[in-house]
Amino acid sequence: MYWKGKLIFVKTTVVVFYSFILAAHSISAQKPWVQDFLSVYNSNDAAKIKSHLIENFHKAYHNSTKYWQGVFKEFGPVTYFSMGRDSVNGRPLIWVRSQKTRNFVGFAYKLSTKKEFQITRMGVIRGMIPSGITQKSIHPNEAKSEILSYLGELGRSDFFSGVVLVAKGDEIILNHPVNLADRENDLPNHENTKFLIASTTKMFTAVAIAQLVEQGLLSYDDPISKYLQDYPKHIGDKVKVHHLLSHSSGIELDEISAYNKGVMKIKTLEELYQLHLKNLPKLENYSNFELPEEYNYTNEGFDLAGYIVEKITGTSYYEYVEKNIFKEASMNNTGDFENDRAIPNLAKGYRVSNTGSRRLNTKQLPARSRPAGSFYSTPQDLFHFIKALRRGSLVGKEVFENMITAKTTAYANSISESKYGYGFTLNNLAGVKSWGHAGVSPGISSECDYYPKSDLTIIVLSNFDRAASVVANYLRDYLHFGLN
């Protein structure tokens, strides 16, 4: 969920450390146990997977059959590519490529030193490419027919549902709907279907703060206690607005059960703030609070930033972003979600259940969106947002350049890095740089990225969880590396 977005987002699409290739691209380069593992994975047969786990994996993995079926639901069958090694902690990995989504996937593993070929650890690495692949720029006009064919196949095989926008400069090359917005009533997605966008919302909150900075109403260096006088001073005097927007505040409440349950019910930021204060003493380091020394993704920082917007402007956060961001950027199909208010043309979300089937995410939806996530939008509206930022109509260009200048580092290694500015993720994969934001929660996923060098905008909104990143990564790899 977006309020637990740190766990899902970081583990699935961001914090991945990639490798140098150790073997030729040949099936003969595989070790026998690798071939066995991939054969069982590709079968997607629960009995075969269970038997293989018990025979070849540490007992901690014996009950992970449904997990691997979930991975199969995400990528489908895979083809071996190479063996590699994690460039950060040295773990070996198996590089494969999905036959359906055409994504590269890494299976990072660790073998037992006591029992031959027993796998004591294995995890799925997403969103990257093997090292040694060079850039090859392809104009989206040249790739359009192939992309449409790809999207059609993904839709027919139930790997993707949503809308995909690709633009070169200010020109939209394609804005293509795939699959159904409402499966129960057989209603298709269309270009103006609205989708919940999870943590992609954070860009709106960061721009709202930047506007107030530009007006001289606050500073990134201000301690939050300046605006939140009832906030515990031993924390509020240390945490600055800068820390809230760069994931470096150390205020992390979404691991607290009572807080998570309460978040589902809130309707106003005042309610959210009071819930925050009530649960703050449960922080492990509450009494001796210190700022973290590294990037630590949290939703709470953006929620506090949104509440500060209310304190300074005297208006609700929701009204502020509607007037000063959405209207200014001609985002006529963007707004805040409320679960008891009908929103025309809003796609229903479908999460992957434990059995691998897709089910409505109704029970996982919050009462209302918040500054950290789950507003709704369309690809075309987000494209308007990107254009408004680039031309300086929401905030001045110098202010925006500061927002997309790295403040913290999520990870960095020999092939890729992911840093964070103020509300924007800054990625660099083998020299291909982008800024934007992603989001994921049950039945919801979104990717909104701008690539300055190629002047490409790639926006994918989906009513399937994780599906947006799968398509966005394919488009990135195809248009910047020629990997079709």
| Average of pLDDT | 91
CATH class of the largest domain: Alpha Beta
Any idea how many domains?
3
Which structural class best describes the helix and strand composition? Answer: alpha+beta
Query: Which segments are poorly predicted (pLDDT under 50) over 5 or more consecutive residues?
Result: 1-29
| Spatial strand sequence of the major β-sheet | 7-6-20-19-18-17-16-15
Largest β sheet strand count, sense and barrel closure: 8 strands, antiparallel
Distance between the termini: 31 Å
The count of helical stretches stands at 15
What is the name of the CATH architecture of the largest domain?
Answer: 3-Layer(aba) Sandwich
Determine the fraction of residues in helical runs and give it as a percent range.
25-40%
CATH homologous superfamily classification of the largest domain: DD-peptidase/beta-lactamase superfamily
Question: Can you walk through the features of this model?
Answer:
The protein has 484 residues and is α+β, with helices and mostly antiparallel strands. The protein has three domains: 17-125, Roll (Nuclear Transport Factor 2, Chain: A); 140-200 and 333-481, Beta-lactamase; 203-319, no CATH class. It has 15 helices and 20 strands. The protein has helices at residues 5-14, 32-43, 46-56, 65-75, 140-156, 202-214, 233-236, 241-245, 257-263, 269-279, 300-313, 317-326, 379-391, 397-403, 467-481, and strands spanning 19-21, 78-86, 92-98, 104-111, 119-125, 162-168, 171-178, 180-182, 187-188, 195-196, 335-336, 350-352, 358-360, 375-377, 408-412, 416-420, 425-429, 432-441, 444-451, 456-462. The strands form five sheets. Strands 7-6-20-19-18-17-16-15 form an eight-stranded antiparallel beta sheet, sandwiched between helices. The protein has a five-stranded antiparallel beta sheet with strand order 1-2-3-4-5. Strands 10-14-11 form a three-stranded antiparallel beta sheet. Helix 9 (257-263) packs antiparallel against helix 10 (269-279) and helix 10 packs across helix 11 (300-313). The longest helix has 17 residues, at 140-156.
